[in-house]
Amino acid sequence: MDTMRERFASVTSRLLEEDPRLAVVLADIGTAGFAEAAQRHPDRVVNVGIREQLLIGVGGGLALTGLRPILHTFASFLVERPFEQVKLDFGHQGVGGVLVSAGGSYDWPSGGFTHMSPGDVALLDTLDGWTVHVPGHPDEAETLLRHAASAGDDKVYVRLSAQANRAPRAVDGTGFRTLREGRGGVVVAVGPMLDHVLAATEGLEVTVLYATTVRPFDAAGLRAAADPAGSADVVLVEPYLAGTSTRFANEALEDRPHRLLGLGVGRQELRRYGQLDEHLAAHGLDPHGLRERITGFLAARR
Questions:
Q1: How confident is the model at residue 272 (pLDDT cuts 50, 70, 90)?
Q2: Residue 40: left (phi > 0), alpha (psi -120 to 50), or beta?
Q3: Orientation angle between helical segments 4-18 and 138-149, nearest 10 degrees
Q4: Integer angstrom CA distances of residue 265 from 104, 145, 188, 241, 268
Q5: What's the start-to-end Cα distance of the chain, in Å?
Q6: Which of 60, 226, 234, 265 has a CA that sits 20 to 30 A from residue 292's CA?
């Protein structure tokens, strides 16, 4: 199976052939995947070098000319480092584009903290009007990338990851999907967290919702899954900063009694490189850690 990043390069290269409005902007990272596309479309595949603020500025400028820019690098270089440019060159200018990240929260541990971005989605939440997709499989990434590329002038963030679920699910760029139903609570699994959540909740009487589009937050979907007749217990399992979506879940259930647990990447920096699986376990996001925390949370009400 190819990775999400490999699928991104192949799909976007095909989209450049199909849609003359699309342009790709890179900052050295990922250029190999677009080598052929750059030869075929030198005016629409631009590498600005290791200049991430310029990456965003060029993308915003292309959008002002009427193009639909797709910008790509590691999440820490795409959202965190040039955040002022994201805020001004897209938001303030009132133009749209597609930011496609790699690296996630800790996909490349040996790259160190400079290449980790657990706070990217929370940071974008400080801005208005961003759609955020978090695919859990390369097939889902392709669907959501195509959706983002054709989304008019919307501002879209597609968060790719080295983590992937074993099988794809049907996604359409909108709300949550119900995979299991139960009366003991609701667990929302975001993107690549799904397989771990399904393993962690095996045998538990809970509803499992799968989320690959997290902004806008599917308030209606969460309300429909929560027990309207009693107190709702909700667990959010996200592959980025713990608690990133708790505000949206609380707002969705503000007229109902409910308890909420936000699971994700902790704020404490892990200063040993380790491996991806070790980072998952350290943050309690492996099946064992999730099982303990979810069952403990649900048992507390009883």
A1: confident
A2: alpha
A3: 30
A4: 11, 25, 15, 5, 9
A5: 44
A6: 226
In the predicted structure, residue 133 carries a pLDDT above the cut 60: yes
User: Which of the 8 DSSP states describes residue 193?
Assistant: G
Cα separation, 37 vs 45, in Å, equals: 7
DSSP string, 230-266: S-EEEEEEEEEETTTTHHHHHHHTTTS-EEEEEEEE-
pTM, full prediction: 0.97
Q: How confident is the model at residue 300 (pLDDT cuts 50, 70, 90)?
A: confident
Map tokens 């990338």 to a residue.
Answer: 145
Please state which of the four CATH numbers 3.40.50.2300, 3.40.50.970, 3.40.640.10, 1.25.40.20 is assigned to the domain occupying 4-159.
Answer: 3.40.50.970
* 3-class DSSP state of 213: strand
Contacts 24+ apart (CB under 8 A), 254-257: 256/223, 256/226, 256/228, 256/231, 256/232, 257/230, 257/231, 257/232
C-alpha pair distances (Å), 77 with each of 53, 57, 182, 227, 267: 9, 13, 41, 41, 19
DSSP structural state of residue 32: G
CATH match for 177-301 among 3.50.7.10, 3.40.50.920, 3.30.390.50, 3.40.50.150: 3.40.50.920
Q: Supply the pLDDT for residue 202.
A: 98
Give 89's contacts (C-beta < 8 A, 6+ positions apart).
Answer: 56, 57, 59, 60, 61, 95
pLDDT tens digits, residue range 201-254?
999 999 999 999 999 999 999 999 997 766 799 999 999 999 999 999 999 999
Cis peptide before 216 (omega within 30 of 0): yes
